[in-house]
Every structure is written in structure tokens, then in C-alpha cells.
């Protein structure tokens, strides 16, 4: 999940695909380079928000922290910039989820993906799902849901 030394170069290749300038998607794993950079950045922003938040919440008790951040006013400004970063991340993230479609959003919320078709998520030799009903990928079959080892 953490970015590596190739992530910036790969993220620059992902951006034109996301903007529909280029049709071919660069090779990627579970998360592409832009996602790895964005999600790692949000975690680091969270740490920054806690630090700046403590400095502006208790400026007398944590005067040394406010001093490290450039003073009380600078800590407030840095905290505000972090909030702007969260809003930008949220807007971009939601717009990409909308662009990816309802199934992608449902998969993010529920933890499994519903795929139309007869081979998605089936084991070898299993009966395919009817074409009219979607197969649920990643769901536990009802026969094994209550089984214990």
C-alpha cells in the first residue's frame, strides 16, 4: 500500500487514463500508484491534523509544539491547509467513484462485488448462476456460512 520509488512515475501515467486522454491502463496491482500516493498522503495528513490540532487546542500546555510549527497562527494555518487537502481528496475520490459506477461504490461499502455473468467467483465444476441473477464475488456460500471446523 505504501508508495515505492516508481510510484510518482506510474501515477503520472495513470492520470491521463483517469482523465480519459489515454485508453490503455498502465499495469497495476490492487491499488495503482496514484491511489497509493493519495491514501498514504491522507494518513500522513491525519497525523499532521492531530499534531496541529493539539498545538491549537492547548497552545499554552504545548507551547513547544506550537513553536515547532511556527507559532500559534502558523499552526492554525497549517491545520486549515490540511482541511483543504481533505476536501480536495474527498471531491476527487467521490467523483472517481461516481465515474467508476454504482457496482464499484457498492463493493466499497459492502466488501464484495456483484458481477453479472455466469463464471464470476465460481469454483471449478460448480453450476453457473442464471444469467438473470447476478453472482456475488467474495460472499460466503449459504451452506458453509454457519459451519465450524
Layout of helices and strands:
Elements: H1 7-18, H2 33-57, H3 63-68, H4 72-100, H5 102-110, E1 113-115, E2 135-137
Antiparallel strand pairs: 1-2
Helix pairs in contact: 1-2, 2-4
Quick recap of the structure?
This protein has 149 residues and is mainly α. It folds into two domains: 1-100, no CATH class; 102-149, no CATH class. It has five helices and two strands; from the N terminus they run αααααββ.
What this model shows, in words?
The protein has 149 residues and is mostly helical. The protein has 2 domains: 1-100, no CATH class; 102-149, no CATH class. 54% of the residues lie in helices and 4% in strands. The protein contains 5 helices and 2 strands; from the N terminus they run αααααββ. Helix 1 crosses helix 2 (33-57) and helix 2 (33-57) packs antiparallel against helix 4 (72-100). The chain starts with 6 loop residues before the first helix and ends in a 12-residue tail after the last strand.
- What coarse outline follows from CA principal-axis ratios? elongated
* Number of structurally distinct domains: 2
Q: Poorly predicted ranges (pLDDT <50, ≥5 residues)?
A: 122-128, 140-149
The helical percent reads: 40-55%
Features:
single chain, 149 residues, mainly alpha, 2 domains, two-stranded antiparallel sheet, 5 helices, elongated
Amino acid at each position: 500500500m505504501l508508495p515505492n520509488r516508481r510510484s510518482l512515475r506510474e501515477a503520472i501515467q495513470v492520470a491521463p487514463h483517469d482523465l480519459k486522454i489515454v485508453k490503455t491502463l498502465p499495469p497495476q496491482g490492487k491499488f495503482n500508484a496514484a491511489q497509493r500516493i493519495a491514501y498514504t498522503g491522507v494518513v500522513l495528513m491525519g497525523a499532521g491534523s492531530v499534531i496541529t490540532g493539539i498545538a491549537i487546542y492547548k497552545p499554552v500546555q504545548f507551547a513547544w509544539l506550537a513553536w515547532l510549527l511556527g507559532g500559534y497562527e502558523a499552526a492554525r494555518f497549517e491545520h486549515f491547509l490540511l482541511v483543504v487537502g481533505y476536501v480536495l481528496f474527498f471531491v476527487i475520490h467521490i467523483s472517481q467513484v461516481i465515474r467508476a459506477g454504482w457496482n464499484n461504490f457498492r463493493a466499497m461499502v459492502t466488501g464484495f462485488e456483484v458481477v453479472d455473468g455466469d463464471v464470476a467467483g465460481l469454483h471449478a465444476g460448480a453450476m453457473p448462476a442464471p444469467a438473470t441473477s447476478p453472482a456475488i464475488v467474495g460472499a460466503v456460500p449459504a451452506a458453509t456460512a454457519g459451519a465450524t471446523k
